[in-house]
Amino acid sequence: MTVETKEPDPKCMVRKKLAECIKGPNLIKTLIIIVCVGVVVQQITTCIRKLIDKPITTYTHFDFNKTLLYPSVTFCREPPYKFDKMQEYGLYGHPRFTSAWRDFDFENIDLDEMWGNITYDEKDMFVQYGFNASRDNVDLKATIGFINGRCYTMSPKIRTQHATKQLGYAVTLQHTAEDLETTTSVFPPGYHVFIHYWKEPYTEVTVYNGGMVESLYVNVGETLDVKLKVDQYQMINSDDDPCIEHHNYSANECTTKYVWDRSVEAAGCSGPWMESDVPRCRNYTSMRNLITAYMNTHESHHSSECPRICSSYLYNGFVTDRQKFYSWDSTATEWCIKTGPAALQTHLFIYFNSMMVSVYEERFNYDWNIFVADLGGSVGFLLGLSVIGLMKMFGKTWRMFIQPFLRSDKDSGRKHSETSIATIDVKNLDQNYFDKCNGWCDKISGSK
């Protein structure tokens, strides 16, 4: 005979325990736990999203440097072209006026040679210049453009260890009386001054992605003291706002090349102010198309192909003193009216008066340390759990809900095998009992 012990169904046990959670006072506890778990899941999801797409925060601090890197300074003359030389080539105004090219002799005049002759060179612009009390500390480089003609950029060769006026830039520029009489520009005779980071060379093309440039205009005969202040920007490359950290990359050069290529593509030829492998324009129609395309593109190109550089400097210039028509005679200790060539000279002093640099640095505002802290705060505050508590909870869940199902499957197979063995044993036991009984009966009958 086989005796089977009936064990409770694990599924029924789970249903019973779940039913107890929603009976009486346990219902309120269950609802609170469900709400807290939902809030925790929502907060954890938010934290995971922050890890995937990390937020960026800008930190501001001030550094007092032991050395200072001065900016590059570009000077563009106004008027930008020599009026007498332009007349020799049959041009009566600024080259931007396309009608002036109607009778130009494209067949016999080399455009590159003509552009060099009608723009001003170094000796036409500078009387003297220097940096840190020496001319040898300055690297002077020419840049040819279309609107501003030939400009010259000064870049420092050394860093300075002191912030004083005597160790900054000192520049004396000049004009002639003929410039005042024959100018055809919308600006009065003077100089455009552009202060910019040395990695971003000057360009007359408008740069929207970078091109952090400070600009001033100085009239003929003025004396300006310009105090500098520098802001350093350290940005992070991202999909929404990309930037490049390559050492030799320049957003200004990239944008300028983009505008040149678009203009050359529209006209089918290039101009003498461009660096291009396409041949120069050789007739009035192509030159007119090139000038029109360039003037329409150099400010409204909307180029997105040239991201900014990740680390850059913005130099701000503040005019602290501005004098005109008068100069200080240190011998006579009195103000004197400028006359002769001195009245047509322009003086600039550009310098730092402080070693302090304002730093604007972008940093990721979320990492694994903050994620673990947020996770522990949310789980601990809303569910009252710690790491040890979580281990106990998982262990209890395993014993109460998962292990019974696994045990039931094993017990069912084991039960089947034990039943089969027990049945066989009972059959054998019954057969032996009958054999013994038959033997006893035979002995009793023989004794009679």
For the structure shown, list the relevant keywords:
about 40% helix; about 450 residues; 10 helices
Structural description of this entry:
The chain is an alpha+beta fold and 448 residues long. The protein folds into 2 domains: 10-53 and 370-438, no CATH class; 62-364, Acid-sensing ion channels like domains (Acid-sensing ion channels like fold). Helices cover 38% and strands 25% of the residues. The strands form 4 sheets. Strands 1, 3, 6, 9, 12, 15 and 16 form a 7-stranded mixed β-sheet that branches. A 5-stranded antiparallel β-sheet has the order 4-5-2-7-8, with no helix packed on it. It has a two-stranded parallel ribbon with strand order 10-11. Helix 2 runs antiparallel to helix 9 (368-383) and helix 7 (251-267) packs antiparallel against helix 8 (284-297). The protein is elongated, with a radius of gyration of 44 Å. The two termini are 36 Å apart. The model is unreliable at 419-424 (pLDDT under 50). The chain crosses the membrane at residues 368-391. Pfam families: ASC. GO terms for molecular function: ligand-gated sodium channel activity. Its main location: membrane. Belongs to the amiloride-sensitive sodium channel (TC 1.A.6) family.
